[in-house]
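Fold this complex.
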Amino acid sequence: MAFEWLTGGSMPQFWKNYLSLFDIDEKNGLKRYVIFDMVTSGLDWKDDVILSIGAIGVHGDAVEVGDFIQVDILQENSTVQSVALRGVPVNEQNEKVVEAEAMIQFLNFVKDATLVSHNINLDVEMVNQALKRLGLGRIKNPLMDTNALYQRWKGFSDDTHATLDELCEALKVRKNDRHTVSGNVYITALLFLKLKRKLEI
Amino acid sequence: MKNPVAERIADFLKRFPPFISLTYTDLIAIAGQSKVIYLEKNQVLFKGGDALHTDFYIVKEGAIGLSVTSDMEETLIDKCDEGDILGLRPFFAKNNYLMTAKAREDSLVYGIPIVVFQPFVTGNKDVLSFLLQSFASQSRNPYDKERSGKLISENTIYNDQAADIQYFQPIKYTRNPITANPEDILKFIAKTMANSAIGSVIIQEDQLPKGIITDKDLRAKIATGLFPIDVTADKVMTAPVITVPENISVAEAQMMMLKHDVGHLCVTKDGTDKTPVTGIISEHDVVAAQANTPGVLLKQARRATRSKELKYVREKLTDLIQNSIDKNIPVAHISNIAAEINIAITRKAIEIAVERIGSLPPVRFVWMNLGSQGRKEQLLLTDQNNALVYEDVPAEHYSAVKSYFMELAERVNYALNKIGYEFSPNGLIAGNELWCKPVSDWISQYNTWINTPEEKSTGISTTFFDVDFIYSVPAIENILTENIAKSINRNKRFFAYLAADTLKNPPPLGFFRQFLVENDGEHKDSFDIKSRALEPLIDGARLLALSQNIFEITNTYYRFRRLMELEPKNADLYEECAEAFSTLMRFRTEVGLTSSSNGRYLNLNDLSKSDKVKLKNCFQPINDLQDLIKNRFSLTYIN
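Structure:
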């Protein structure tokens, strides 16, 4: 595995495309952020898997509603014990795809945008594990964590932790639809817009 | 793919007009291309004067204030809450935003691209009429509740309905347009267009419209060398031309242009190309009709052929001023617009007079508007004060030239009188032999005033330092102003007399801070706002501006603004003076409009308490200004 970059020729096309996006230094136009959230089978990134992943784009200072993706992942062992953990039902009616296809769709959507999520480290690690299972490298995108942004705005140290609900209270974001992937993504996107403005990012 | 975020937005939109009239599928499609924007309190969404955005907006949460801003004041016009739409201007106009939209609290707005929504506007009558209404009410400011009681306008009857409805009224367009035949040579068509100063010619055959040739065609097809210049019209015309029926409304005309992406519409008897051409509507007609009336008035003034039409323009200008005053638009801006139209009227009156005389002027000349017109502060129909300067001529031609200009001046004076500007009671008009003379005579006249400013003559001469040159010939204008500048420069005596004259006006307040009113005569017990409040400011501004060699600015407000720059240490005082002047002008104009007078006398009983306070606040800067003048021009010594 360690030498896979030497045999780069054998990597799948989508991955090559994804990597090539980071070769270009000059970026023009509005910066794109992708806010994402996922439902997983648990909190252990070694054993648990992604069940569903949703993401939406933010261009400059606006959420682009059309710039949206949601992928539900077909599970090989259907005895997924996840639901109770995050209290999120996985019953959105989207067609389910296998994990590999989901990663292709996700990375094609994300491109070279800055990834944003609440407690992003776990989420990104879940993605990295999925990519590892495909024999590919790690996510290359710049990352931003809404929790960290919030703590910075509040002037607390980075390791303080606040939940998404606490952020909603503090930043006055309505919590409708809180417990679906798309709902969480949208709420996180609004939180991000507000924090972005307050921190003048 | 299903997009739950878009569904959520569609669920919100469907509760509000105009989205109520659309299907849920359409709403999902619209929502899917929208964006969500967060605005922090006081964040600006768009600013007056900004280029148009590609989106219009719906408030999701919070409140957005719409205001008209100018460098001096910001007037809140409307507040948009949940479900209100704003930023509709791109649908209807191509020029920049007029208003500023600013979040009054933390807000979320949805932005919907105009291109996405456009098909629903043209395709759905309910949507169109809703948008038109919103647009009309937001851009023309329905009567603003917050303002009542602030100024004396509470006594004026507000009647702006006409302006709103105007949008749905038939558009004014060119009837019996210039047309050409398909086999006409392009070069001659272009010549006709140039001669008549028009941007398009309809190509007709047996009176039926076949096509149109516009500036754009000439630019794209001839100037680029695509076709030779002697090609026939049918080769280069744009066909078919979009036709519309007579009596189309401003709104409809605009929709047609947007729909077909054209700048001209051909009017025919029944709206099809099977009936004779009766007119042409250009984009300019649409813009003029909606970008509010100043444009139309200017156009009408420029196209007038008789003084009766100019009279109509002047009457409309009064309406416009009334509306602008009601809308609390800064007086300096209103004055600018009014001045432009007044100038256009004067110019046209001169042109008509030249035409009536039947021969061109023998030498070049300059028409000078003096006094309030010269200062571009004439909001009410006050007296006309003007003069005429013509080039020097050899002695043998003098009497012929002189009689030509005397006749011209008299005709213009009479025309202006008919239009509504009364003759000056002092005979200060160009038709007066004294004020219609060649440059050299004017120079010696000015020199007399400047070098021997006896009290008697300064009274009249000050008006001659507030000059606006119309029909200007730079050569004459320069000779005059340079000469004045030279003889005025550091002329202590002149300024001392001017200063004495400035301080001559009666004071506004008595010892007990009570208003000083007229003791007798027709206006017993009214307050003379002109001589007690406005004139001290006007005279002061003139004196200080001239002493600083400011000749190009004659407007009192702008004189103070310029003085602020030149004398930073007195900037505060000058700013107060400029503001006081604006406020006083507003009072005077409102009174004048209500009582159809020149607004000189204010009946104090008509003023509310807060108006009286406001008025009194204007007097302190006058006092301070007069103190400054006393010190600077060492008047104690002269007196």
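The domain at 30-199 of chain A is CATH 3.30.420.10 (Nucleotidyltransferase; domain 5).
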